[in-house]
Amino acid sequence: FAFKLLWVNATLWMLPQATLDISLYQSAVEEVAENFALPHGMWWEPLSIIVMAGLVRVGIPFFYIARVFLPGLSSLTLIPFFLVFRRFDQPEVASVATLLLAFAPLELSIFQIQMYRNVFAGFFLMAALNFTFTESQRIPVMTILSAIALFLSHVVPSLVYLATIFAYGLLHRKEKDGKRCVTLFVFLAGISLVSMVYFSPTIYSWLY
After folding, report:
1. Of 72, 130, 149, 193, most Cβ neighbours within 10 A?
2. pTM (2 decimals)?
3. Is residue 84 within 8 Å of residue 126, measured between CB atoms?
4. C-alpha distances in angstroms, 89 versus 17, 38, 43, 85, 129?
């Protein structure tokens, strides 16, 4: 965990994309913290902006958010990742996979454009998968909440999550977990479709 924290902290400032992210996010976060309004084009993936703006609002400088909070959140992703991987393989294999992830500066970076946004999405993707496969309550509250947080963080990993639980549900459709995943997929996909229909006039006006 400590290595991951230091590694992300170092590489985040060495990568060229990080410079663009810092200028983009700092101005957007400070604007939201001051005006309580999301900038144009960020309303549909607002969670990272809102959380960081809240931290700025309570007096934490953006510098410390970028150097401490975000690397810390990235490091915490190792925990749900290990728990998810351990479910499908031996603990030794899960430990090696988690160790390899510790060397990745930003999880699942192939699925993202802005790195800070992906830190939130990577954490909630692993958390949602972990709760999906482990929560035993009849109404999976933590699964739904973590999935919603994922959808509000980044669209592409949200689609990866939906595809994962759909594929798992089909492969294990005769088992209890498989039926549960299919039901969860239908529920979350339905919410996503309704949201797209509701916001389609706004999206259309921006595109055209």
Report:
1. 130
2. 0.80
3. yes
4. 35, 42, 39, 6, 15
